[in-house]
Amino acid sequence: MLTDPLADLLSRLKNAQLVRKPTVSAPYSRAKESILKILLKNNLIQAYKVTGKPPHLSLDISLKYHHRQPAMAELKRISKPGVRIYAPVADLSRYLRGRGLTILSTSKGFLTALQAKKQNMGGEVICKIK
Fold first, then answer.
1. Whole-prediction pTM
2. What distance in Å separates the CA atoms of residue 84 and residue 125, rounded to the nearest whole number?
């Protein structure tokens, strides 16, 4: 049993990219799939698909590389089970500075910081990806 499945997904992605693997597999959850949809939409992974039969579903993720360098240089979990980090809409500009993508968990699901700011919503800061 994992205490933080989202951190497990980020670790799997980071470790697979460090050794230049073309694909990586992770146990399925709707939260993980939502994060992967955001990564796919922002062109940070090539593709993903759900495989297996319930209750043993898994996610097969195809990683993306640019000139043999990983598309995601840094994946960092911000809000952890022991210390939750929340950002109201007024503080989202701090997460929009610089290069990268910040993913938030809001009442409307997982959104990027830019999407959340456009919808005038704050939420829990899940991770930062550069």
1. 0.94
2. 8
Beta-carbon contacts of 19 under 8 Å, excluding residues fewer than 6 positions away, are: none
Contact assessment for residue 106 and residue 114, using Cβ atoms and an 8 Å cutoff: no
Closest CA to 61 of 79, 82, 36: 36
Instruction: Quick: pLDDT tens for 6-63.
Output: 999 999 999 999 999 999 999 999 999 999 999 999 999 999 999 999 999 999 999 9
- Domains within the chain, CATH numbers bracketed: 5-70 (3.30.1370.30), 75-129 (3.30.1490.10)
What tokens were used for 40? 């796919």
Instruction: Measure the CA–CA gap between 60 and 22, rounded to whole angstroms.
Output: 11
